[in-house]
Amino acid sequence: MFTTIRTLESAQGAWLTIEGKTVLNLCSNNYLGLANDARLVTAAKAALDRYGIGPGAVRTIAGTMALHDELETKLASFKGVEAAISLQSGFTANLAVIP
Predict the structure, then answer these.
(1) What is the pLDDT of residues 55-75, one digit of tens each?
(2) Which of 37, 89, 39 is CA-nearest to residue 59?
């Protein structure tokens, strides 16, 4: 099997622009369509203004950010549980739940 890496020329969504052509996107992680939601874009810009680019390092090395604490508190409240934790990747989520 040969793979060609394509460069996206548009925002992600159901339709993309690749090499000047509009194509249907059948392989996105944006299945809820939230990547371009105006409310999330506005909130992300505000977070960038406050915190800058990137978390600095993995939280177990450099510490956590107030933003992460706030997210976890809101997630726990939303789920009606004592606490929640956010992890940086699917791999670390698997490590956290599989003994």
Answers:
(1) 676 777 877 888 889 999 999
(2) 89
- As beta bridge partners, residue 23 has 16
User: CA separation (Å) from 20 to 5, 36, 95?
Assistant: 15, 20, 41
Residue 15 makes CB contacts below 8 A (sequence gap 6+) with 22, 23, 24, 25
Instruction: Please classify residue 97 by burial: count the beta carbons closer than 10 Å to its beta carbon, then call 0-12 exposed, 13-18 middle and 19+ buried.
Output: exposed
The Cα 35–Cα 29 span in angstroms is 9
Nearest-angstrom CA–CA distance, 53 and 9? 22
pLDDT tens, 20-65?
999 998 888 887 888 889 999 999 999 899 988 876 767 778 778 8
| Residue 8, phi then psi, degrees to nearest 5 | -80, 135
Cα–Cα separations (whole angstroms), residue 19 to 7, 15, 24: 8, 13, 13
